[in-house]
Design brief:
By secondary structure, the protein is of the alpha/beta class. The chain contains 14 helices and 13 strands. It folds into 4 domains: 93 residues; 59 residues, no CATH class; 162 residues, P-loop containing nucleotide triphosphate hydrolases (Rossmann fold); 60 residues. A 6-stranded mixed sheet has the order 6-8-9-10-7-11. A 5-stranded parallel sheet has the order 2-3-4-1-5. The longest helix has 16 residues. The mean pLDDT is 83.
Length: 394
């Protein structure tokens, strides 16, 4: 946004920054063809480059009026950092270095083979925070790697109401060949410098509880090597006017900065229950729908629901997500493979037939709605009961 504002010769621009030591460095990286200087040095402008001025803090009322008129008449821009809200200033968000600047900062500091992915993870941080992240990687993890950069960044800088990082580790994923192949084929788009329209946007998975919807989000995050976040919009509701909207805006901004990443909206139908007279909830939903439609960041959205009929169709229309997938659980023909793989994650190398016999007995007693499909979570519980009954691990 700030680049468009400067190229459009907006007279007065407002940005926020917690890193006042590197303001000029960041602006020079963003605008290499401009002569970037403090507003206090306005008289020393270079005739060979268009000027771009910046000022930290508030400006006096009369000075702001005169400055606006002069900038408009002489076609230049002034960027104010941490100025109080003012209708004469165009708000352009937070000032952070662009990818090219981050790339230049990291060259020679980290292994070349991880440079591109590291830039993607550090995007959205200030220069000061980037330096802190790299310094603490060695302390926390004894090395600088893509994984240590990701974990250190999350440890230091992600503290947002309604947004929680989820551990994506899972013993194994049993989702079918088609889903796993799709995940493998689309991974490069999350890291390549491509048109944002080619980047996968998201999926809505619906079906009975325990059929593996949330596990899919963990699987994608693990396979793509990305952070997984849970966005809980209901937790953002507040009795204070405007606070819920602020929390949601901040959470979505954080996700955009964290991209590439995965975000999980679990049991999304709860957002649409009994909200017809709740103005705050409706505003939150409108904001969320707008973000899903127009985001250009590499944030892959996994929405899950148990009851598709409870959702408005505009939530999962084309342009907001890529796929609508129904999960029915494990077909009875898949049970043997599933149980065998699950037992192996517990270190079991024999006794598979006994485990299947118990699962078969549980199937016969089961009161699931289908005779052919069984929730993964339910089969997992049967396997655990078998292991406990056989005193496994003791």
């Amino acid at each position: 946004m700030i680049k468009k504002a400067v190229s459009g010769l907006i007279p007065l621009i407002s940005v926020r920054s917690t890193d006042l030591l590197h303001i000029e460095f960041v602006l020079r990286g963003l605008f290499p063809s401009f002569n970037v200087m403090s507003l206090a040095s306005k008289h020393t402008a270079n005739e060979h480059q268009p000027p771009l001025y910046y000022s930290i803090g508030n400006s006096k009322e009369n000075t702001l009026n005169d400055l606006y008129n002069d900038a408009e008449q002489n076609e230049y821009s002034v960027i104010f950092i941490n100025h109080d809200p003012d209708p004469r200033l165009m708000e352009c968000g937070e000032l952070v270095p662009d990818e090219k600047t981050i790339h230049q900062m990291l060259e020679g500091e980290i292994p070349k083979k991880i440079l591109k992915e590291s830039v993607a993870y550090l995007k959205g941080l200030t220069v000061q925070h980037i330096k802190q992240t790299l310094s603490l990687c060695s302390i926390y993890y004894d090395q600088i790697s893509v994984e240590s950069i990701r974990k250190t960044k999350e440890r230091l800088f992600i503290h947002q109401t309604g947004l929680t990082r989820i551990d994506s580790s899972t013993p194994f994923y049993f989702g079918g060949n088609n889903l796993c192949a799709w995940v493998a084929e689309n991974k490069p788009y999350m890291f390549a410098d491509v048109d944002h329209r080619l980047v996968p946007k998201g999926v809505l998975m619906y079906g009975d509880a325990g059929t593996g919807k949330t596990e899919f989000a963990k699987y994608v995050a693990r396979e793509w090597g990305l952070s997984l976040f849970l966005l809980d919009v209901n937790s953002m509701l507040s009795k204070w006017q405007g606070e819920a909207e602020h929390h949601l805006n901040a959470a979505l901004t954080t996700l955009d900065k964290e991209s590439p990443c995965i975000v999980l909206f679990d049991e999304v139908e709860k957002l649409f229950m009994d909200n017809s007279e709740n103005d705050t909830s409706q505003r939150l939903l409108s904001k969320l729908l707008w973000w899903l439609q127009y985001k250009t960041s590499k944030v892959y959205v996994v929405m899950t629901c148990n009851n598709l009929e409870a959702l408005p169709t505009e939530l999962y229309r084309s342009g907001r997500i890529d796929q609508l997938i129904k999960l029915q659980g494990l077909h009875k023909d898949q049970l043997k493979d599933f149980v065998t793989q699950l037992l192996q994650t517990f270190g079991v190398t024999e006794g598979f037939n006994e485990g299947m016999k118990m699962v078969g007995a549980k199937m016969a007693q089961s009161k699931t709605t289908s005779e052919k499909y069984f929730p993964q979570a339910l089969v997992c519980q049967w396997v655990i009961e078998y292991l406990q009954s056989s005193k496994h691990g003791l």
